[in-house]
Amino acid sequence: MLVFYSCIFSALSRLLVNMNAPIEFLRRIGQDPHANGAKSSGGEGCPDIWELDNGDFAIIGIDITDSAIGKLPPTAGCGRDERIVRLPRNLLVSAKRDIPDRL
Fold first, then answer.
1. 57 with 29: CB under 8 angstroms?
2. Ranges of residues in the chain whose predicted pLDDT is under 70
3. What confidence score (pLDDT) does residue 46 get?
4. pTM to 2 decimals?
5. What is the chain's mean pLDDT, rounded?
6. What does the pLDDT read at residue 19?
7. Which domain holds residue 62?
8. Confidence at residue 66, expressed as pLDDT on a 0 to 100 scale
9. Separation CA 35–CA 38 (nearest Å)
10. CA angle, corner 100, sides to 40 and 77, nearest 5?
11. How many structural domains compose the chain?
12. Residue 95 in contact with residue 30, Cβ under 8 Å?
């Protein structure tokens, strides 16, 4: 039993270290939301997907946590340090070609 707990703790500590590592944006996944002169509503950012230098992804989207958290399926959860983000369908579909097929 001690080995089981030490494995979980070891994996969890590695995950926490990785999640708190400095962030470096490597490349955009999909098209630039401002391509062809497109403007953001409100003059600010647009939904976007970025690959980080460690292979993880960063998502820029509308935070819908407050309205969506109570409607999550039983097999989904949202931790205190997590947010539920809405992405327009066209953003993710157009990014599909840039998402790696393997780990």
1. yes
2. 1-19, 37-44
3. 86
4. 0.70
5. 82
6. 65
7. 23-98
8. 97
9. 6
10. 70
11. 1
12. yes
* 80 in a structural domain: yes
Residue 28 carries which side chain, given as an amino acid letter? R
Q: What are phi and psi of 25, to 5 degrees?
A: -80, 125
| Spatial separation of the C-alpha atoms in residues 48 and 88, rounded to whole Å | 10
- For residue 16, tell me if it sits in a domain: no
Burial 4-32 (b: 16+ CB within 10 A, else e): eeeeeeeeeeeeeeeeeeeeeeeeebbee
Domain annotation covers residue 89:
yes
Q: What is residue 103's predicted lDDT score, i.e. its pLDDT?
A: 83
What lies within 8 Å, CB to CB, of 49 at 6+ separation is: 28, 29, 30, 57, 58, 59, 60, 87, 91, 92, 95
Q: What are the CA-CA distances from residue 90 to residues 7, 31, 48, 95, 98 (Å)?
A: 40, 10, 11, 8, 14
User: Tokens 């292979």 correspond to what residue?
Assistant: 55
